[in-house]
Amino acid sequence: xxxxxxxxxxxxxxxxxxxxxxxxxxxxxxxxxxxxxxxxxxxxxxxxxxxxxxxxxxxxxxxxxxxxxxxxxxxxxxxxxxxxxxxxxxxxxxxxxxxxxxxxxxxxxxxxxxxxxxxxxxxxxxxxxxxxxxxxxxxxxxxxxx
Length: 146
Hints:
This protein is mostly beta strands.
């Protein structure tokens, strides 16, 4: 099966090829509904992050989410990419469907598994090729095969 993705920058291409995942929702800066919810990882190692607001009268911010993820799941690097939560590690990242924060953070309710791609010419899954856009500076078109 072939796939196509547009990525902004070589650093993002490198993260994508290593199995990073990015949520589909832009994180709002007032996340009232996240307090007490969980995000459960099955890879690169098993870990469950439980989000906690500073106080019941104060919503969580995107910075709070990133700090708590980086603190409670040390094998995962959490950061914002175009306002959306991205998660990377030394190998592919996988989120289980048992977490209660998946949808709030823009991940599928049933979980998601990042795909670590091999180099062009390597075994499947692999990046078939990538080219730099002539229309958008720093944007790359990536063709993959799984």
